[in-house]
Specification:
Length: 98
């Protein structure tokens, strides 16, 4: 009795996926292809817009490089990370142990 009830329920729960399948093999009936009239019309000087964008991008670049430099300098000064700039110097105790 339990099998007759549980097997169909399990089958249905496994067969349903979490994503609803949408089958749209053709465009909607009221679809119109795009035309050149729908494109935006450029306004103003491209050079002034380009210069404005470059100024903004250069400020971001300078800010990022500055923050990176300050971060690496702080880490190097605090001793959190040893960057292995040169060979380590041995103390007298380390020399006597070897």
């Amino acid at each position: 009795m339990f099998r007759r009830v549980s097997i169909p329920v399990v089958r249905k729960s496994i067969s349903y996926s979490a994503v609803t399948q949408v089958r749209a093999y053709h465009p909607p009936a009221d679809h119109k292809p795009p035309t050149m009239d729908e494109l935006p019309i450029p306004e103003g000087s491209w050079q002034s817009q380009y210069d404005s964008n470059q100024r903004k991008y250069n400020l971001h670049l300078i800010g990022g490089v500055t923050i990176l430099t300050l971060t690496l300098g702080f880490i190097a000064q605090s001793g959190v990370i040893d960057f292995n700039y040169s060979t380590p110097t041995l103390t007298n105790e380390e020399i006597s142990q070897k």
